[in-house]
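Weekly structure sync, notes
Attendees: PL (lead), two postdocs, one rotation student
Agenda item 3: pending single-chain targets
PL asked that the sequence for the first pending target be pasted directly into the notes so everyone works from the same version. It is reproduced below exactly as submitted, 321 residues in total.
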Amino acid sequence: MVERFTLGIDLGGTNLKAGICDAQGSLIAQHAIETKAELGFEGVLARMVALVDDLVEMSGKRRTEISAIGVGAPGPLSRAQGLIHNAPNLPGWVNVPLRQHLSGATGLPVVLENDANAAAFAELIVGAGCGAHSLVLLTLGTGVGGGIVLDGQVWHGADDSAGEMGHTILVPGGRPCRCGQAGCFERYCSANAIAARLVEAIEAGEDSMLAAQVRAGGEVDAMAVQHAMEAGDALASRIWDETCYYLALGCITIERMLAPDLIVLAGGLIGAGDLLLRPVQEYYEKLRWRLTERLTPIAFSTLGSQAGIIGAAMVARTMPT
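Predicted structure, written out during the meeting:
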């Protein structure tokens, strides 16, 4: 039997990343280029097609050995229709029929999947959750995204919007969110939220080693807050501790609702390592439900930036033949 490979594309606002995987989820080739979102849909589509062509050539495989393309895409989308309804980091991408156009341009079947769902699927197959039946992935970056895999299958919900963990409400009446709600997970546990909360506290009169930088109009990011915390800054330490507390609360909600085999943390914030994981786990244990002994473990992603590529390729393998 001839082995068939699938190609995965991770569609981001800054970069287009792609790879070709075998049936076991091993990457045999990968490549990345700038998205150049300012080119609009047609321009980005042309770059995606060129990326597919270059990747097939780099892999040394014949095009007939590639059975399908999977695309992990941001924003609300419809898998059934192959539409991206709205991609915030891709200007003008409103109700874009990506599947139809990409399939027509490459001559290959295309399946569309939410990018966080694709990453979660990859972590289950070959990543931190390898051997598990279910997991929930939380991506802690600019915002907070999520993906759910139950009994080996991505859980999409009635309208493909399941897994939007970043917009579960942790603090009723809390910080306003761009989604229209208030108190969302994303407004307390994302990298942007960490920096924003510190800046707001300084502007309200609290002291910090970062105060002069903020008052001079300089930008502060989550890494700067982390470094200030490590240096003993009281305000940065409080903001960081609150973030870990809220992240633990979110994990408890997930644990009680779904009882997955594993909760996987991914995204830029996990670069903090034990400075993040240890306090989250301590709060998680302290605040958890006591009616059963079992507690879903929390672990970091092991696939990093490759998760979206691998997941998209493996989702493509689930297409009906």
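Discussion points:
- The mean pLDDT is 94.
- The longest helix spans residues 234-258.
Action: rotation student to compare against the earlier draft before next sync.
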